[in-house]
Amino acid sequence: MVSGAFASNPFMDVPMNHWSYDAVSQLAANGVVIGYPDGLYRGNQSTTRYEMATVIARTLALVDLNKVSQSDFEILKKLVVEYKDELDVLGVRVEQIDYRLKVIEERIGGWQINGHMAVRYDSVGEGNSPYNVSNRNSVYFNDGNGSGASIYFRKYIDDKTTFNSELAVSGSDSNLSEVYWRQFYVDVILPWDITMRVGRFTHNWYEYYDYRPWFGMVQKDGLIFSKTSGYYSFGAYFSNESASDTMNQDVMQNVSSDVMTYGIQFNWTPTDWILFGMNYDYWNYETVSINGTDDDISVLGAELVLTPWNGIKVGGEYWKQDNETFWQINNIKDPSAWKIHGFVDQNVLKYTSVYVEYSSFGQGFWLQNDPFAPFGADVLFAMNNVNNAMCYDTTSFYTKLDQKWNEKFNSYVRYVKIDNDRSSDNLLDQTVSNWSVGVWYHYTPSVAFGLEYDNVDYDNVLLNDDSMIRLQTNITF
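Predicted structure:
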């Protein structure tokens, strides 16, 4: 920033004909300037550069974001440049000023509105396709996360409270009539830098590289607390959804039951290259009572991620579940699962990034999502269609290579191999192979076009092998 012309003495009077008087008067008239410590701006008498900087500093700290216009913001920036040295004397560092100006600019007027739309054309080869595409060809709206188009509204109520909402159109190749509030929540900054989110929101704590995480990426009606401080982060949530809410049926895995869920998460990073995490989630299906009792699931997971070199990560996870009566398969009550994974960034390999993952699921282990289904076909086929618990011991191998060629083009190649061990039933093992390639062209920062091909091959599975060609247009604003 450029320092002011009279910065040699911060206690020097500002000449009465200096432009900053008119600038501050205009901001004060618009309700932007906070004024002197006594709450008044005395524009009919001279003031020192230090006092003027005090007014600016108070305004930066306490400005009413609902009253700032773009023209007011430009005036405020000009004042900051003029009185930069005096702000330094007050202890307002350059990085603090830049951050605060960025926040004010983002929140001008209090409201932010943006959105996205994803239009797809899918073409498959089989009439009875595992991709479940109507009449082999479909044009529809879908972003892969349940909506075809969304408009996001954000209202900055004050420095500690923000309202957020998402008005969405359901993503479907047959029905675009459902318009609903997909998210509707308030974020509140509490004492000790704890953030509380309350309302309807999409919840996810878990990293994933393909379609969806094992657990999470679901809508919740409730509240969540989170805190990040130094070497650790902590979170806790509670929600309760009604069976009568059709938008929650997928969350409840096709079970017509009220469900109460809660969970906690803790991450610890003692150094820049070590992360240790623990997660606990609990689902109580309150009205299932298959065997005369309520049914529930709890899962405890531990994670270790190492970053030995810049751009390289390796890690592993271990999960243990307690599945009550309704979810048991062959009386297996406490199934487990584990995963190992590694990632090398394109900056290291120059031409591509590489992600590799190997997972093992015990029979009866329950997943909330199929993690390998971005094109809609069942890939992790051992997930029982009724309750998403593994019918057999199952392993998965997954890898993806991403290439960013320049600011306009990127491409990828992915491969998944699933093995279902059915030896306990004296049956032939099931194998599912799935591979995809795709290229994306970013016409503008807001418009992107994609061409993708996916192929799925089932061995000893009662589904047709098939392939899909997808054309997609993504628009963000």
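Summary: Residues 22 and 204 are 50 Å apart (CA to CA).
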